[in-house]
Amino acid sequence: xxxxxxxxxxxxxxxxxxxxxxxxxxxxxxxxxxxxxxxxxxxxxxxxxxxxxxxxxxxxxxxxxxxxxxxxxxxxxxxxxxxxxxxxxxxxx
Amino acid sequence: xxxxxxxxxxxxxxxxxxxxxxxxxxxxxxxxxxxxxxxxxxxxxxxxxxxxxxxxxxxxxxxxxxxxxxxxxxxxxxxxxxxxxxxxxxxxxxxxxxxxxxxxxxxxxxxxxxxxxxxxxxxxxxxxxxxxxxxxxxxxxxxxxxxxxxxxxxxxxxxxxxxxxxxxxxxxxxxxxxxxxxxxxxxxxxxxxxxxxxxxxxxxxxxxxxxxxxxxxxxxxxxxxxxxxxxxxxxxxxxxxxxxxxxxxxxxxxxxxxxxxxxxxxxxxxxxxxxxxxxxxxxxxxxxxxxxxxxxxxxxxxxxxxxxxxxxxxxxxxxxxxxxxxxxxxxxxxxxxxxxxxxxxxxxxxxxxxxxxxxxxxxxxxxxxxxxxxxxxxxxxxxxxxx
Lengths: 93, 387
Prior knowledge:
Chain A is built from two helices and four strands, in the order E-H-E-E-H-E. Chain A is of the alpha+beta class.
């Protein structure tokens, strides 16, 4: 439970802090998780462009996996991947 | 001071907007409000104002555009009535929750059905709990004056709430009356430049407006509205005092007429208050101790002012130009709860009246006085209906 009093919150609940969504772990929402097959991946980074939650990890221009703390499992990456390198795997199975 | 003019209530509001020159107006025309946006769009077309005027495809969209513009940092106005206000219903709550100080003119018109374009207050009563300040005007002069006051109240740093100004559809919106506008530069000075709080267009200070608030935050954000509404009383009183110095017209949240020594009082909002003053004068001549109270500020409801004004009266009738089928009118409920804790509180009865634009005749209001003077009348009465 939050602690802030009504009088301490910005009017209308507006968020004036930058990057606060980092603290909101939307990964808990996920029912399916994306998994990449690195043998098929061409590092075109289409998934990185499309991901609405900035959850595709990239190092040195190479796609290295997903940030599961924030990935909601929407599946847009898998849908858009031209190499069909991303599969959506049922969570908890 | 400008010369007196003869205009209708809608035009007087459009003239106030012209002088204020809002950054954005988004609206959808609906009778009997149409003259407001029609007149104002003439000003836009002729380059008399530099307002960004958006003719939206619906009222739902119009108010959504207003919210976006206000969050972006603009001074914003809109207008609607009846079904148009009903169509805004969902968005009304978002405007107040996001604390966007939009000013909206409502030309009070009943809600369908049966379909009807004439005056009653059922549209405004539907917005009662939406977190908007609501100010009612009696005549063309007040349509104009309340508009200027509304911008100051809405935008006040202790308030920051969207604000509605109401006038009775057709009765005031379309009737020509004598009124005195202020000079353009007087209005500019009174209203002042718009001060935005963390506008979306301030790219150096990025802000998220209207984020989700689940059970851990929703209540605290809603409570902010209760606090802001509480501030409206003092802020409005101060602004009205300032306006009185400028215009010579002194307004109050609640205004009594010959109430000081009155034993019997009838309470109303809107144009009926004028008729009531006439009836009070007539009955005073016959020796009856009667008075009338006009509610100018309906939300927040000035309970303390009303209690002070009605203390010691023998009986009070509350006129509601809207009905909540199955119980009394909203104004009646508010007045009764304002008086409940008072020792020896007056007997209060409710009169539903004037629905769908039904004319309100002085003799009928005299009948209301006679009924409460005789201790007659049900708890809820339906004035003038053919039962």
